[in-house]
Amino acid sequence: MHRPLVITEDQELLDDLLRVAAAAGVEIDVAHAAPHARPYWRRAPLVVVGVDAADALAATGPPPRTGVLLVTHAPEDPEVWRRCVAVGAQAVLELPAAERRLVDEFAVASEPLVRAGETICVVGGRGGAGASVLAASLALWGSRRGLRSLLVDADPLGGGIDVVLGQEQATGARWPDIVEREGRVSFAALQEALPTFGELTVLSWHRGESPPIPPEAMRAVLGAAHRGCDLIVVDLPRHIGPAAAEALSRAASTLLLVHADVRGVLAASQVLIELRRHTSSLAAVVRAGAMRSDVISTSLGIPCAGVLPDQRGLTEALNRGDAPGIGPRTPLGRFCADFLNELEPR
Predict the structure, then answer these.
(1) Contact yes or no for 253/225 (Cβ under 8 A)
(2) Is-cis flag, bond preceding 212, omega within 30?
(3) For residues 98 and 140, what is the distance between their CA atoms, to the nearest angstrom?
(4) What confidence tens digit (pLDDT) does each residue in 23-81 have?
(5) 281 and 239 in a common domain
(6) When you count CB atoms within 10 A of the terminal residue's CB, does the N or C end of the chain come out lower?
(7) How many structural domains are present in the chain?
(8) How far apart (Å, rounded) are the C-alpha atoms in residues 123 and 140?
(9) To which H or E segment does residue 223 belong?
(10) CATH code of the domain in which 68 resides
């Protein structure tokens, strides 16, 4: 993977650009003189030219290319637009005002692969419905079949989805460590910071006081995952705040887990009112019980994605610290296989 290229002889400007690249979690190549940039010019995914080096670079006659930006500390410089045209830059970024955009540009350029991952949100129709177990099972199933997957715990009061996986002692960042993240971020940097097990990366919570997730942080995380993952599964709280709304707006499908009894359906219908404010891609997953799935689907006005019978030994396994069993003969395994096999071609 080639790195972004910076061309400047201005040490103060270079210091700022190195700081911005660090904020984006990327490494860069630096050409301190315009002729030194020639070997990198075509292959760099992004070229950032200091205004001080623009004339010297133009004199070398670099071939036209996309992904060139001109950066300056002097917004009043009348020559800046002439230099922009001379080096074939697509935009002029004035620092420090444009630092956030430059972080975004560095992060996008450093992505090793664009995967266009699908986001699935899971929410319980009532407390204790098993939404966290279903979310964890979907992400596990995907990762074990080679899909690069991110499991996001968006419920600060849920006890931590890393516990569902039996990985609460795993080292790595949790939500409180990254809630101030905004703008684009490289998924490679995110994956390196978070607990990762094979193809599965997990974003959960520390124990103790839990700050709310800013929607900007959720946007940054899901944006990075969309570019770097095949599958993103978000475990949502039943009360939809700004961060949960951000996730819902990005979801290809939102699964509402419904207990098949009168109280379960009534509770789910209340949650559904909130969900419909943010997404129309909704389906019910029915926990087997006294009511038929077709009656529940008709009552709620959303399709049924499947029925989940009780899984023998699941509670005991979770209490031992084991991940949910998703073998091909288990109810969870069969549901995940059917649902994700249908989703994958899309």
Answers:
(1) no
(2) no
(3) 39
(4) 888 899 999 999 999 999 999 999 999 999 999 999 999 999 999 999 999 877 889 99
(5) yes
(6) C
(7) 2
(8) 17
(9) helix 215-228
(10) 3.40.50.2300
